[in-house]
FAD/NAD(P)-binding domain-containing protein
Amino acid sequence: MSRIENVKRVAIVGGGASGLVALKALLEQGVFDEVVLFERREDVGGVWFFDPKVASEEARRYAQDASTRYPVVLDDGSAPKYPSPAYEGMIGNIAHELISISGRPFDKPLSTGPVQEGEREESDLFPSLDSTIAYLRAFADAYSLHNHIKLDTEVVSTRFVDGKWKVMTKNLLNGEETSSTYDAVVYAAGLWDRRHLPAIAGIDSLPKERLLHARFYRSPTIFAGKRILILGNGNSANDIASHAAPVALEPVYRSIRHPSYYSYVPDAKIHDVKPVRQFSLDPASGKVIAELGDDTVIRDIDLVVAATGYRYDVPSLRVPSRDGSAQDEPITPPDGHRMLGLYRHIFHARFPTLAFIGYSIAWSPFANSEAQASVVARAWAGRIDVPSVEEMIKDEEDSVKEVGDHNLFHVLALYKKREYGYGNELREWALQGGVEGTVGVHWDERRIWLLQNVVRLKTLQLQRERGLIT
């Protein structure tokens, strides 16, 4: 075990929940000369940030040219826009109590009257998009975090040079680039940019107007009067299918490999079908033909929606190579199935002044990020020990042996300790540096019960919303 010393200047990449809790935790230590957070959007919120104006313009341009994607440049002279994966009517899959950051309970929504046509009522347990972004903004305001945040600023590159981190940023308002040096860097930008497409024959040949990744879904209006095939049965696939069903041609097809592990209520307008074996185009109509694994053929598909997840990608970051060559290397393998070289999904084993917060997959993501941030802040403040490089490398090797080297490597539920054991372990580690400041939530019996029952509770809520139960 050893102590990390002489960390005075810290940069954080990403202004979502993970970046905000990291900023708060680092500032609480009171020993750093500078802590600055860079966010490329015009406000905090990360994956929960949603701008209806940008979404509308994004949809308009997509209708004109399906190859138009990223970023969205408006005609008002504002900075380029980087829409998050958020969409209209999005309801969280995590209960308020689980998503709350310690010391800042998530207020339950108050009923303001009957739900208007086209709107969705927010449940007592699960927060809406609007209430979640409001919660994160209030969190930033409560701790005066905006004094340390640079919005409309993109991190272009991060490199390890002469024992420090050289960070190049770009002001998206005027295009000006700035290079600064930091003793330590937190990446908290998540994994919501690199879309994953399944290895289905013909999928790469589908024209862009026939294939939409869930990353770019914003509103069900895109489905009106169309025949839709959705790939996947995770949270996004289930949600998008329920949005499409009232407006698309019946039925909406959902191609699945197995029953959903997530909250889902059967709908007569949604038909589950076998996995797609091959895609092709009808030469006459230009529409999609899907051949399924059971030899069924679905024709005249207007739009295929790939709700098939994401892969890890940190394009701005390179670290010195493991073999000592002059060529820096990325932090992810070419296929992006996981992050490489991390201890407990947080510290880079060879360069522990580089940390990643919020990249592990958790049912309680804000609390998970807070626990990780509490350890990082105390370690860089020199208040707790960290394992040696050799110990951290071995820990990652042991993790690969435990769960395998695949795209679920960072899913905490697959580990013996589970999410709650992991969280409590990080909390105990942080407490070795004192009780002052962020230490993360304690996973008690009630919190564990909520975690174990969150899918059932969300399913019950969906059934109530649709009048299936009272």
Q: What stands out?
A: The longest helix spans residues 445-465. Confidence is low (pLDDT under 50) at residues 109-123. The two ends are 56 Å apart (CA to CA). The domain at 203-309 is CATH 3.50.50.60 (FAD/NAD(P)-binding domain).
